[in-house]
């Protein structure tokens, strides 16, 4: 089955004009219907608020994906991610978020992961790695997890990754599972 | 989906909440055929690669602006006392980070390699003395040569010569 992304709305955030323009062009080429290309995290937040409030777009959840560079000024990708996942004005705290970054070390990867990133796209990237990440977002969404210290996609991608120590600490009656229709 | 369910009641017994949501992206991308694995069309991928090629052709011209900015920051750093160069070195570090992410995307992995090295030489605890600025200059010179000569890929013999010259400069001024 071939993707038809004509109904997709994507925010591309990068303060590097050339990289921003590249990503916007490539998104359109791959069939994405609407691309908002913004200069940094604060413009992305304004766009999210504006699109979320636009009645012609059917209200909330109009933006389907954010692709944000980590290094941006004044509001970087990490702060943007934090706002999307935690801020009371965020229109969709479950919004898929791809962090585009030249930081490849585990410290940075874990930092983004612990703030609830969906996927990380390492730079330099190719069309193949870019489409692979977007395909992953579409095909393999993870359940979201809320604990006292974390909110975001399940950081354990495979069942085999479940940690024994976690299992011991949390009892079955301390877990609640919520499905779409239970979210008001 | 701002909702009460996103707050854990600290007095309650629930410690973990799992949200299992419909895959709305897949529904949108597949006209509801959520069970069938999806893919981008070959045409879309080829067009995306063709667009990337176009950007790659213009990249050397565009990136020269960043190289000029690197030389400018280096000049400003040299005009200052050794212990007052932090802001210029931080700016050089930021540009190096930006460039290391670009080069390989546009077919210039040598830009990525040299920018990565420059990024490491200008980190928070880097030196700021005259000899260290010479190392910074050697990196900028190397990237400038790669871009002006349009040294794509690994650059073959010329690429190896440029990297060897940079290594010698680093050794000399370290």
What do these coordinates show?
The complex is a heterodimer of chains A (184) and B (174). Chain A is an alpha/beta fold. In chain A, 35% of the residues lie in helices and 19% in strands. Chain A is built from six helices and eight strands; from the N terminus they run βαβαβαβαβαββαβ. In chain A, the strands form two sheets. In chain A, strands 2-1-3-4-5 form a five-stranded parallel beta sheet, sandwiched between helices. In chain A, a hairpin with a 4-residue loop joins β6 (144-146) and β7. In chain A, α2 (41-53) runs parallel beside α3 (77-86). In chain B, 64% of the residues lie in helices and 3% in strands. Chain B is flat. The chains are: A alpha/beta (184), B mainly alpha (174). At the A-B interface, α1, α5, β6 and β8 of A face β1, α1, α2 and α3 of B.
Brief characterization of the structure:
Chain A has six helices and eight strands, in the order E-H-E-H-E-H-E-H-E-H-E-E-H-E. By secondary structure, chain A is α/β, with parallel strands linked by helices. In chain A, strands 2-1-3-4-5 form a five-stranded parallel β-sheet, with helices on both faces. In chain A, strands 6-7 form a two-stranded antiparallel sheet.
């Amino acid at each position: 089955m071939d993707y038809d992304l004509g109904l997709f709305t994507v925010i591309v955030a990068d303060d590097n004009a050339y990289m921003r323009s590249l990503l916007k062009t490539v998104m359109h080429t791959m069939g994405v219907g609407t691309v908002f290309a913004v200069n940094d995290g604060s413009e992305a937040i304004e766009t999210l608020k504006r699109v979320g409030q636009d009645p012609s777009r059917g209200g909330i959840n109009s933006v389907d994906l954010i692709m944000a560079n980590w290094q941006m000024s004044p509001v970087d990708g990490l702060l943007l991610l934090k706002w999307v996942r935690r801020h009371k004005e965020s229109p969709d705290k479950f919004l898929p978020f791809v962090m585009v970054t030249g930081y490849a070390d585990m410290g940075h990867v874990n930092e983004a992961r612990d703030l609830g990133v969906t996927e990380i796209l390492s730079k330099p990237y190719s069309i193949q790695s870019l489409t692979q990440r977007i395909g992953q977002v579409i095909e393999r969404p993870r359940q979201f997890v809320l604990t006292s210290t974390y909110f975001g996609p399940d950081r354990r991608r495979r069942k085999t990754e479940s940690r024994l120590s976690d299992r011991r600490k949390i009892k079955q009656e301390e877990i609640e599972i919520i499905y779409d229709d239970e979210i008001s | 989906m701002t909702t009460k369910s996103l707050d854990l009641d600290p007095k309650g017994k629930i410690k973990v909440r799992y949200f299992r949501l419909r895959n709305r992206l897949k529904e949108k991308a597949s006209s509801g055929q959520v069970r069938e694995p999806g893919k981008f069309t070959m045409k879309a991928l080829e067009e995306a690669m063709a667009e990337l090629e176009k950007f790659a052709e213009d990249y050397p011209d565009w990136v020269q602006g960043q190289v000029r900015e690197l030389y400018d920051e280096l000049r400003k750093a040299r005009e200052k006392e050794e212990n007052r160069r932090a802001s210029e070195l931080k700016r050089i570090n930021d540009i190096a980070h930006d460039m290391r992410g670009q080069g390989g995307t546009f077919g210039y992995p040598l830009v990525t390699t040299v920018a990565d090295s420059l990024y490491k030489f200008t980190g928070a605890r880097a030196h700021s003395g005259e000899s260290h600025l010479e190392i910074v200059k050697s990196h900028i010179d190397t990237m400038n040569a790669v871009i002006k000569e349009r040294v794509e890929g690994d650059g073959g013999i010329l690429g190896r010569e440029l990297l060897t010259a940079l290594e010698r400069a680093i050794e000399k001024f370290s």
